[in-house]
Structure formats: C-alpha cells, structure tokens
Write a structure and sequence with these properties.
With 382 residues, the protein is α/β, with parallel strands linked by helices. 61% of the residues lie in helices and 6% in strands. The longest helix has 37 residues. The protein starts with a helix and ends with a helix.
Length: 382
C-alpha cells in the first residue's frame, strides 16, 4: 500500500489528472460536433445532358430530388472530366446520352454514364446506391407502363416486372454515423496516448529516483502503482462516451455501471503492457517513443478507421496483443449492439490474459534487475 500511496501523491503533484479528463472531453466535444451530421448528404454532381428532351429533364429532377445528390450544374455538351471535376466543385459527372428518349419510345435499351472522382472514396459512398436506385425505379416504371399499354392490368404488370422485392434494415448504426467509429476511436487514442505515457514512465522514473528496488523485488509493488492510472482512465472514458452520446447522439445502450467492468480490465491491461514496454527505458523523456509500439498499431489495425476484417490474417492476429483491439470489440458489442456482459467472455478473457502476461513479464525483468544489482553489490564489497 505504501507504493500505491506514493504513486497517488506523485499524481496529485502533477497535471496528469487534469489532462486525462480535459483532453478527451475536449476531443469528444470537438469531433462530436464536427461529425454530428453523420454522413455526407447531397453530394455535388454535374450533369451533361446531350439529349435535351423532356425525359432527360425528368431524370435530372429525379437525381436532384435524391437526398444523397445535388445537381450543381447542367451542361449541354460533353466536356473533359478533368475540367468538370476540377476545384472539387463536384465529385461525379452523370452523362445522359443523345437520343435517350427516342430509344425509350422505341423500346430500346440505353446506357447512362457516370464519371466519379475516386481520389476521396468516402465522398462517393452515397452516389452509387442513389443512382442505382433511380435507374432501377425508372426501369420498373417504364416496363410496367409498356405492359399496361399492351392491355395487362397494373397488378399483373407489377408482379411480372418485380416478382421479388428487397426489404433491408440497417441495424445498430442506421445512419452510418462517424460518431461510433472514427470519433470514438480518436477519443480512445487520446486516452491511450496519455495513459501509456504515464504508466510507461513509472519504472524509469523510480529508477532515476533510486526507488525502483526500495520495496524489494516483488512485482506487486510495481503492479499496484498502475491502479490510479487505470481507474482515472476508466472514469475519463465513461465521461467522454457520455459527452459523445449527448453531443453527437452516439448509440450507447449498455448501462454504464456494467461497462465499467470491461473498461477497467482494458485499462489495467493497457497500463501493465505500457509499464512492461517502458521498463527498460533509462530516461523518462524517451518513454514516448517506446509507447509508439502500442499507439501506432492501435490506431491502424484495431478497427478505428477500417474494419479488421479487411486486413490480412497476419495483421488480424497481431492485433490480438493490443488491448484496444478488444476494447473496440467490446464497444461495438456491448455499447452499440446492447450485448450482455456474458456474451463477451472471449474479449474479457483476452484482456485478463494480457494482464497476466504483462504481470509475469514485469516480475521477470524486476527480478532480473534485482539479481543484477545484488551481484554488483557483492562484487563491490569483494
């Protein structure tokens, strides 16, 4: 308990307690407001109308009426896409070919072209399904109209043209909100960066102060020092998630008092892993560079910007050693899908395994340093 009291006194003298709460809350507020619109709507597109017919104007109105597209300009003749897509005033060009209405009147098929600027793929997410929906609707309407003109009743025509319909429902994140993906990922990364920097500096700081082995070679005297960091990190995370729920309407279904359990396990795993990686650092100022071994992989392969399923199997397995990989899975499972705690024994077990392995590693390096110091003392007295 003396080690715990000593570490708490060190925390109170510094600014880390204030930073661990203020920085994530500021990030949650900033990014929550920044991405509160959830997704890109009314993506700007331009239309090249080579047909100049009433039907082409009807198509342009349908495109502009889509909630996912906005027609910013209509050109009568085809131009180079380099010109039309310059200056990012539009991200796609839709080309309506000459003779479209004439071919439609004759019952012939036609093709509508679309050029898309894929330098920023995220801006095209709504265009493809929107234009496909318009084309499908037009095809169905034209087919039913032609069949009714030939004497078939409307119901039979609909059954013939569209015998199978698709009903779909987006679960857990129906608006494709960035709050539950990138924003919460940014907040978690900030908390991770602050927590690993502080926990990873414990052993180097004690070594510089001459206190590392003052309480003996038992790893418990180091293990217990991470408790304040884990508890404060957990509290900071819960407050940040609550702010995201209020500011950015983030989905968070599980009761906070239930989610404290996985958060505490994650924070302990993170702190102990950071302590193990930072143990051999001789200067506290160099701890940050060592913590990049946790920070960068956590940002890249744990499911913040891209689902881990998109990575090769090697990177998916590598991510198992990172506590944030399991935190993100717990957030998606418990907070977003409202899963019960018992459903996620694998994720909880992984955090406990990291805690155990890191504790064993800390005990090993501490005993080794204690033995080396003892040998040096014996050699000096001899």
């Amino acid at each position: 308990m003396k080690s715990l009291t000593d570490e708490w006194n060190h925390l109170r003298r510094g600014k880390w307690i204030m930073v661990i709460f203020v920085a994530p809350l500021v990030a949650a507020l900033f990014f929550g407001l920044m991405f509160s619109r959830n997704q890109l709507s009314e993506t700007p597109v331009v239309v090249v109308d080579e047909d100049h017919s009433s039907y082409s104007r009807q198509l342009i109105e349908a495109i502009n009426a889509s909630p996912l597209m906005k027609v910013t300009n209509v050109f009568p003749n085809r131009l180079s896409p380099d010109i039309l897509l310059a200056n990012e005033q539009a991200v796609a060009v839709i080309v309506i070919p000459d003779g479209l209405q004439q071919r439609q009147d004759k019952g012939l098929s036609s093709s509508i072209g679309i050029w898309m600027d894929n330098t920023m793929p995220s801006s095209l997410g709504g265009i493809r399904p929107a234009i496909q929906e318009i084309v499908t609707t037009e095809n169905t309407t034209l087919a039913i109209t032609r069949l009714t003109q030939e004497g078939m009743d409307i119901k039979s025509a609909k059954d013939l043209v569209s015998p199978l319909s698709l009903v779909q429902r987006m679960l857990y994140n129906p608006t494709s909100s960035y709050i539950g993906t990138m924003v919460i990922g940014f907040v978690n990364i900030i908390i991770l960066m602050l927590t690993t920097g502080a926990a990873g500096a414990i052993a180097p700081r004690l070594r510089q102060e001459g206190k590392l082995l003052s309480a003996g070679s038992s790893p418990f005297q180091l293990w217990i020092r991470v408790l304040p960091y884990a508890i404060l990190s957990t509290c900071s995370s819960l407050l940040s998630y609550g702010l995201l729920k209020q500011v950015g309407q983030m989905r968070f279904e599980v009761a906070p008092y239930v989610f404290i359990v996985p958060l505490l396990l994650y924070s302990m795993a993170l702190c102990l892993l950071a302590m193990l990686l930072g143990y051999s650092v001789q200067n506290v100022s160099k701890v940050g560079s060592r913590m990049s071994l946790i920070l960068y992989p956590s940002f890249l392969v744990t499911g913040i910007q891209l689902t881990p399923l998109a990575f090769p199997a090697f990177f998916q397995v590598t991510a198992w050693a990172l506590p944030m990989n399991w935190l993100n899975r717990l957030i998606r499972g418990m907070a977003f899908r409202n899963g019960e705690l018992g459903f996620y024994s694998v994720e909880l077990g992984a955090c406990i395994l990291i805690i155990g392995m890191a504790s064993l590693g800390i005990g090993f390096v501490l005993r080794r340093e204690s033995r080396r110091q003892l040998l040096n003392l014996e050699a000096g007295t001899a």
